[in-house]
Amino acid sequence: MTGFDAYQLPEEHQEIRDAVRSLCEGKVAPNAAHADETGEFPQASYDALRSADFHAPHIPEEYGGAGADALATAIVIEEVARACAASSLIPAVNKLGTMPLLLAGSDELKRRYLAPVARGDGMFSYCLSEPEAGSDAASMTTRAVSDNDHYVINGAKRWITNAGVSEFYTVFAVTAPGERSRGISAFVVEKSDPGVTFGAPEKKLGIKGSPTREVYFDNVRVPADRMIGKPGEGFKIAMRTLDHTRVTIAAQAIGIAQGALDFAKRYVQERRQFGKAIAEFQGIQFMLADMGMKLEAARQLTYAAAGKSERGDADLTYFGAAAKCFASDAAMEITTDAVQLLGGYGYTKDFPLERMMRDAKITQIYEGTNQVQRIVMARELLRG
Ligand code: CAA
Question: What ipTM was estimated for this complex?
Answer without folding.
Answer: 0.98
